[in-house]
Amino acid sequence: MKGDKKTQDDIVYEHIFDAILEQRLAPGTKLSEESLGEIFGVSRTIIRRALARLGYEQVVVLRPNRGAVVASPTLDEARQIVFARRVVEKAVTELVCENADANQIEQLKQMVRDEQACFARGDLGAGIRLSGEFHLLLAEIARNPPLLSFQRSLVSLCSLIIAQFEKGETKSHCSYDEHFELIDALAQRDKEKSVSLMMHHLDHIEDKLNLGDQTEENDLKAIFSNVLSRKSS
C-alpha cells in the first residue's frame, strides 16, 4: 500500500491480506467481527470496511446475517482462477518487458533474495508471502492499475487454492530460481522468452494442485498473535 498515511481499515485489510498470502488463514476460516475488533483494537465498522474490500477482491465471502469467511473456491472456480491468472500474468510480463528500468530490475532481484533468505532460515510463511508479492511488484512495474487490481485478487486467491488443493503435505511456494531466470529475461527485454518462462512457472505451480480438500479450524488470535504482542508491549 503506497503513501505515508494509512487508515485503520487499511491496516486491518493488509494484515488479513498478508495472512491469506502466507497461508495462515485457510479457506473457510470464519472471520468474526467481534474477535477481529478485539485483536486490532478497532470498531466493528472498521472491520466491516476491511472485510468489504476483501469481499470485493473475492478472497472473503460476506454472508448476510452469518458473518464473513475466507473464500473456499470449488474445483471449477479454482480452474477459472488459474486460467485468469495466466491471462493477467502474460499481459503483465509483456508490459514489464517494455517498462522496467534498471532500478526496478534490482528491486525485483532484492525481493527474490529476501524470499530465498526466508526459506533458508525456515520462515515459510514470510517466504510464501514474498513469492506472492513478487508477482504484485511485477504488476506495479507494468504500470496498468486495472491489471494490478486483478492481480491482487488472483494472487491471494491462488494462495487459497494452493492451501486447499495442493498435493502432498508440504506447502509449496514459487521457485526463486524460476524468479531469477524470469528477471534476467525481463532485463534483456526478451518478451517471448519472458512470457515462456512465466507460463512455465505457472505450469510448475499448477502441477502441484490436486482434488484435495482442507477444512482446518483456525484460531484468529493465534494467527494474528504478532498484532496482539505489539499491543501488549
UniProtKB/TrEMBL annotation:
The lineage of its organism: Bacteria, Pseudomonadati, Pseudomonadota, Gammaproteobacteria, Oceanospirillales. Keywords: DNA-binding, Transcription, Transcription regulation. GO terms for molecular function: DNA binding; DNA-binding transcription factor activity. Gene3D superfamilies: GntR ligand-binding domain-like, Winged helix-like DNA-binding domain superfamily/Winged helix DNA-binding domain. InterPro entries: GntR_C, TF_FadR/GntR_C, Tscrpt_reg_HTH_GntR, WH-like_DNA-bd_sf, WH_DNA-bd_sf. This is Transcriptional regulator, GntR family. Residues 6-73 form the HTH gntR-type domain. It comes from Marinobacterium lacunae. It comes from the Bacteria.
